[in-house]
C-alpha cells in the first residue's frame, strides 16, 4: 500500500509530508535502502491489543505508546501539480508517473486561500478550485489513455473482433484497473459496450472519472486552519464537495509539536488532542504552545495530520490491522511480545494473512486459531480489525 501526498506549491504539502514522516524514533530497523528519495514512512495509529492480554508489546517496526500502536505505511511526496499537468505543464509528467503507483491520495489544500493556482502568495483565493482542478487533471489524463487507439478499437468491436472492456482494462492496467472495474463503470453510465462508436467525448470523460474514483480514492486535508479565513472556506468546501472526507489540519503545528517532543520539551503522542509541558520553555515558546493548543488541538480535536493518514487507510481503503500471535505464546523466538502487526485489505482471510506473513506459511497452511477465543478457524475465515491470529502449519 502506498499513499500519495499531492497538492500545488506552497500549500504546505512538503510540511505535511515531513510532519507525517518525522518519526525517526518509531522507524526502528526499517530497511531504508528500499525507500525512494520522495518516499517515507508514516504510521497509522490503532488501539494495541497488548493491554487486553496484560502484556507489554515490543514492536519490531513502529512503537506502542500508552497502548496506542503505530504501524508503518509507505507514503510518497508526489511531484507538485499545476493546471495543465495532463498536457505536460509544470511537473505534470512526473506527477502522472507517481499517480500510477499510489493506492490513494491525500490532497493537501491551503484552506486559508493565501496561495493562488500557481502557488503564489494571494488573498481571497478560492480553495475549491484546487479540489476541482486536481480531479479534472487526473480525469483528463485517464481519458487520454483510453482515447489512444479508440477509433481502431471501436471499429474492431463493431466488426465483432474486439472487447471494449478488456481493451480499456489493458490500457489502464498500470493504474491497477481491472475488467470488473471497467465493466462496473460502463454499466453505471449505461453505455453499450457493444457499440462504442456511439460513445461521445463526454462519455469517455465520465468513464475516466468513475474509474478514477474507484481506483484512486482521495481525501482532502484542509491545511493552514490556524490562519484567518480558513473556517469559512472549510464550511463552504464541505457544502460543495459532500462526497469528500475533508480533514481540518495544521501541518506546521504537527511538525512543531513533534520537534518539541523530540527535544523533551513536551509529552505528545501523534493524534492526541493535547500535550503536557515536561521541559523548561521560554515565555515565547509557552505562548506558541498555548496558541497551538487552543487554536488547533482543542478546536479541531488534533492537528489533523495523524487523522488524515488513519482515515485514508481505514476509511477510504478499508484496511484492517491483524497481529500474529500464539495461544500459548505471544512472543517470537527472541522473546519480543507481539512484535508485528500487518495491514490487510478488508475481506482478507486467514489464508491471506498466512501469505502476507510468509509464503512458507501459506504453502504449509493447515488452519488458524483466533487467539482471543482459542477457536480454530478455516483458511477462508474472514478476519476483523485488531484480530490476533495463530497460523498452524504441517511443518
Q: Layout of helices and strands, plus pairs?
A:
Layout: E1 2-6, H1 13-21, H2 24-27, E2 39-47, E3 63-65, E4 68-77, H3 92-101, E5 104-110, H4 128-147, H5 150-158, H6 164-171, H7 179-188, H8 201-215, E6 218-223, H9 230-240, E7 246-248, H10 251-262, E8 266-267, E9 276-277, H11 283-300, H12 305-316, E10 319-324, E11 342-345, H13 350-357, H14 359-363, E12 365-370, E13 375-377, E14 387-393
Parallel strand pairs: 1-4, 1-5, 5-6, 6-7, 10-14
Antiparallel strand pairs: 2-4, 3-4, 8-9, 10-11, 12-13, 12-14
Helix pairs in contact: 1-10, 4-8, 6-7, 7-8
In brief:
The chain has 395 residues and is an alpha/beta fold. It has 14 helices and 14 strands. Helix content is 38%, strand content 18%.
- Output the number of helix runs: 14
Mean pLDDT value: 88
Query: In angstroms, what is the radius of gyration?
Result: 24 Å
| Tertiary shape | flat
Number of discrete domains: 3
The H-and-E topology, N to C, reads as EHHEEEHEHHHHHEHEHEEHHEEHHEEE
> How far apart, in Å, are the first and last alpha carbons?
30 Å
Annotated CATH architecture of the largest domain = 3-Layer(aba) Sandwich
Largest beta-sheet characterization: 7 strands, mixed
Q: What level of helicity do the residues show?
A: 25-40%
Task: Write the CATH fold name of the largest domain.
Answer: Rossmann fold
Reading off the top of the CATH hierarchy, the class of the largest domain is best stated as: Alpha Beta
